[in-house]
Design brief:
Layout: H1 15-28, E1 33-36, E2 39-41, E3 47-59, E4 74-89, E5 92-105, E6 113-127, E7 130-143, E8 161-174, E9 181-194, H2 198-201, E10 206-218, E11 223-236, E12 247-261, E13 264-277, E14 285-299, E15 302-313, E16 324-337, E17 342-359, E18 362-382, E19 385-398, E20 405-416
Antiparallel strand pairs: 1-2, 2-3, 3-4, 3-20, 4-5, 5-6, 6-7, 7-8, 8-9, 9-10, 10-11, 11-12, 12-13, 13-14, 14-15, 15-16, 16-17, 17-18, 18-19, 19-20
Length: 418
């Protein structure tokens, strides 16, 4: 279980609640019976799945500094224990997951952090035609220096940026297995609040309320046709110095999902996005957005991935007065299974961020380009142990020079289960 970072939707318990979960689960494990590798079942029928990720890595540009003289590098040790408890009650499944991640930077203690989250989820099927998914999540997280709100100013900030999030999500699907058509509906609430550097981070605290609906049509072949719409109301808690950033974000998408064979699957959705700000001084976005994910496995032991997308998103950095960012991404990857216990993955990601700002009747833009090469080797010598060696090479260029940087990370991860 990895800790999620950045502007993610996570969320409603505290450190003490997580400790109670772990203690309660541990107390009942004395009577547990192993059901499958790494999974234990208590006498009361609770399935427990513990895990531990330990990583040693080197980061040669921790603060994403643009100038060579400002670069800080360090070896880092991170430890992330997790525990998932679940109960299966007929067609219904209930689960709770807790995890923490502590990182120690040997040569840069300002970058040490402790992240964590607790999540509860219920999957309910009162009948074959009705399916519900309910999720609540509470998290305490961080942004590395030079990312998020501190983008471009990581070298002058003496600590990581800490924030908490809370979210509630509900999903509903109507349609029996094998039905030609299915209806979907969803709702989400998200709240983010920064904990330190409040003089400026207060301007990026926000709440989001979102509702959506969709229709899925199963064709006679392997394709499913999908129509979706979502609308989100985004409200910032403190008015930005450049003016209110409150906006309504609406998507309309049409697309298809397919599984031609076990070796060829994909998702392709394209449509219209409207980001409408409450004040007329800001530049609204009206345009095409899309997402596509395709997987091709020509051989049982070797395959390729392709993904691309475009969307308009809110600005997180405090050093930018832009109204929104038009983000375009593309990635390609290759995975290969060399033996029953060794596999490799290689991928390349390219992203452009166009920052749009309205000044009078003129649009002022900034453009960033991010390139990342990722390589990893996974080795599984034992059922309960997986070793992963990896290297990330990142290059960022920008029309705003202070944002440019190069960064290389390499390390070794130990993933352990019981």
């Amino acid at each position: 279980m990895s800790i999620k970072k950045g502007n993610q939707q996570m969320n409603v318990f505290t450190r003490s609640n997580l400790a109670m979960l772990v203690l309660a689960a541990t107390a009942t494990m004395a009577v547990a019976q192993e059901q499958q590798p790494g999974l234990y079942r208590t006498a009361s029928g609770v399935d427990l799945l513990p895990g531990l990720l330990t990583t040693v890595f080197h980061d040669d540009n921790i603060t994403r500094a643009a100038n060579q003289q400002d670069i800080v590098s360090s070896w880092v040790l991170s430890v992330a224990p997790s525990l998932k408890a679940s109960i299966i009650d007929g067609a219904n499944v209930y689960s709770m997951t807790g995890a923490v991640k502590a990182a120690n930077y040997f040569d840069s203690s300002d970058d040490n952090y402790l992240d964590g989250y607790v999540e509860a989820e219920a999957r309910l099927s009162p009948s074959s035609a009705h399916n519900f998914k309910l999720n609540a999540n509470s998290s305490w997280l961080h942004e590395d220096r030079g990312t998020g709100v501190s983008e471009g100013r990581g070298t002058v900030q003496g600590d990581v940026t800490k924030f908490n999030t809370d979210s509630l999500k509900a999903e509903y699907e109507y349609g029996r297995p094998g039905s030609t058509g299915k209806l979907r509906a969803n709702a989400r609430y998200f709240d983010r609040k920064y904990e330190n550097f409040r003089d400026f981070t207060q301007y990026r605290d926000y709440k989001l309320a979102e509702v959506g609906a969709g229709f899925v049509y199963q064709t006679a072949g392997a394709f499913r046709l999908v129509a979706e719409t979502t609308t989100a109301d985004i409200q910032y808690k403190v008015v930005d110095l450049s003016g209110s950033r409150d906006n309504q974000d609406t998507y309309f998408k049409l697309g298809t999902e397919w599984e031609l064979t076990a070796a060829t699957t994909g998702i392709l959705k394209a449509g219209y996005q409207n980001k409408d700000f409450d004040i007329g001084l800001r530049d609204d976005f009206d345009g095409v957005s899309w997402e596509a994910i395709m997987q091709w496995q020509p051989l049982s032991y070797s395959g390729f991935d392709f993904a691309t997308g475009r969307r308009a998103k809110d600005v997180e950095a405090l050093n930018s007065s832009a109204d929104f960012i038009k983000e375009s991404t593309v990635s390609v990857g290759w995975n290969h299974q060399w033996s029953s216990f060794i596999d490799t993955k290689l991928s390349y990601q390219y992203q452009t961020d166009d920052y749009h700002r309205r000044v009078g009747s003129t649009a002022v833009a900034r453009e960033d380009k991010i390139r990342m090469l990722i390589a990893e080797v996974n080795y599984k010598p034992l059922r309960w142990l997986t070793l992963t060696g990896y290297a990330n090479v990142e290059d960022r260029t920008s029309s705003a020079g202070v944002i440019e940087y190069d960064r290389n990370v390499f390390g070794l991860t130990f993933k352990m289960t019981l």
